[in-house]
Design a protein that fits this description.
The protein is built from six helices and seven strands; from the N terminus they run H-E-H-E-H-E-E-H-E-H-E-E-H. It is an alpha/beta fold.
């Protein structure tokens, strides 16, 4: 939905919820635009994609570890690790939903944005397997996490697309300290 090097405005909006030094997982990282965003904010980023060439785009990027892994067909490569933030953009594999929620640390933030049913009017993806159903992100993660923001609709930039976006946190005793939406970078 965004250029290969430009971070999503949705992800940029909520990136400050991951503090310096936070462990961040960038799922299906592609060219690494979000891995670089979080690394430059002082986070330690694990970026995963099944395409090994994605690692080339992140080679030499401080604070980023790239892993080439098939997270759809192979085992979850992160075992019981917990992340302070997980970002997913333009990627959908429903069987990973429980794993993503389980991999979020107490007080951790999930930032998710991808295509939804109705996008077939605007182009790819058009396969229903890769399009979220109405309210799907909210229904799946809302029962387990505290939802800070959810959107479901059509965007005009960088191209017309039907999307869903969610930002949610795993509640913890100190979560209220981290949920300052107006906090400075």
């Amino acid at each position: 939905m965004h250029g290969p090097d430009t971070p999503s405005p949705w992800v940029q909006r909520f990136a400050p919820l991951a503090a310096r030094g936070a462990n961040v997982l960038d799922v299906a990282c592609g060219g690494g635009r979000h891995a670089r965003l979080f690394a430059r904010r002082g986070c330690i980023v694990d970026a995963v994609d099944r395409d090994p060439s994605c690692g080339e785009a992140l080679a030499g990027e401080p604070n980023v570890r790239f892993l080439a892994a098939d997270i759809e067909g192979g085992p979850w490569p992160y075992g019981a690790w917990r992340f302070d933030a997980i970002v997913v953009a333009n990627y959908l594999h429903r069987p990973l939903f429980p794993r993503l929620a389980a991999s979020l640390a107490d007080g951790g933030v999930l930032i998710y944005e991808t295509f939804a049913v109705g996008n077939e009017r605007y182009g790819r993806p058009s396969n229903p397997d890769f399009l979220l159903r109405p309210r799907e992100l909210l229904d799946v993660f809302g029962a387990q996490l505290h939802v800070l923001a959810f959107e479901d609709g059509v965007v005009g930039a960088p191209r017309l697309a039907r999307i869903q976006r969610l930002c949610a946190v795993r509640a913890s005793p100190d979560a209220h300290e981290r949920l300052r939406l107006d906090a400075a970078d």
